[in-house]
Each structure stands twice: as structure tokens, then as C-alpha cells.
Amino acid sequence: MLKSNNLNLEATVRAETFQLCEEALNSVTKFLDGIHFLNLANKQELRAQPEVFELDQLVHNVLNKRNTSFYGSDRIQVDPGFKQKQVCTDQELLTKVLIHILDNAYKFSAKEVFVKMTVENQHLIIEVEDQGVGIPADEMSLIFMPFYRCENVKMLSGTGLGLSIAHKAIKCLNGEIEITSAIKKGTKVKLKILLDEC
Predict the structure, then answer these.
(1) Which of 47, 82, 100, 128 is the 20 to 30 Å CA partner of 62?
(2) Which SMART domains does this chain map to (predicted)?
């Protein structure tokens, strides 16, 4: 009806309504993609496909990916000190991990989010630190459960799938995820991924 203009709406109202429909569709699609990914992981059907790629290009692509909460923002600060240009791991899985970790850090903090990357002993180490609301200590053991959302962020939009997806993807990359947090001070996520020899 919108497309055929049968509703006789003003052009600006039509455009705004189309935008709302598009945003809702993107949100549902993202949710279903997340459910599908977790289903594959639970059935142990995820397989990493390592390849050599430029890490700085991957980070650039992640930061400029549409349909993320941080798209177009300058609040995410990436440490320029990373020296190793190329790495070998599954680019798609790493992208998924970074998007979900950065999305959480950005949504739950009104200040800058800091990203640092290093390579040590054939491991890629990525640290993401925010200055946000923090995670309650008594809920820390629950944060990787699908659909779980901490009490102090339930007023914010979200599905509670992000950390579950990141956790499953990291496991598939032969990696580890470590999270430390303090209420009203922020959260630090440390990813340690064993690099492949391509």
C-alpha cells in the first residue's frame, strides 16, 4: 500500500514509514541469522576456513558496516600501533566476533571505546575496553547464555544473543574470550585467537 501510494501520505511521511519498515526488517533478519548461527554451533557444524588477509582492512570494514549501532561514529578508537599487517584465521568468524563485541561496548557506553591489537606467540590478541555501565558481578557467569540480558541494561534495545554468538565463534577459532568489568566504570573484553599457518 505504501509503494502504490494508496494511503495518500505526504512524501516525507512515506519516506519515514519506509525507513521504519526497512529497519524492522533488518532487525528481524539479524535476529534470525543469529539464531541460525547458534543452531549450527550447537550441532557442531561450524568449521573455520582460515585465509590470509589484511587485519587493518578487516577492522576498517567492520567499523564501516551498516546496520551496526556504531556505524558512522568516531567513538571507537583503534590503537594505530599494530605492526603485523597480515594474519591467517577465519575472516568471517572474526568479523562476526568483532561486530558483536563492539556493538555491546558502543551501546552500553556513552564514551569512547578503545581497541588494541597485538600478536604474541602465534596468537592474535584483541582488547576492547569501554567506559560504560559495567556487568554486575553476580551475573558474570550468565552473560554467554543465549537471550540473557543483565538487569542494568534491560531498558536498552537488544536480543541477548551478541555475546553468545561471539563466544561460539571464538571457540570455533581455537580462541578464548575473557571479560572483566566494574559497575559504572566499564568492561574490558580480551580475545586470544590461535592463528593458523596458511
Answers:
(1) 47
(2) HATPase_c
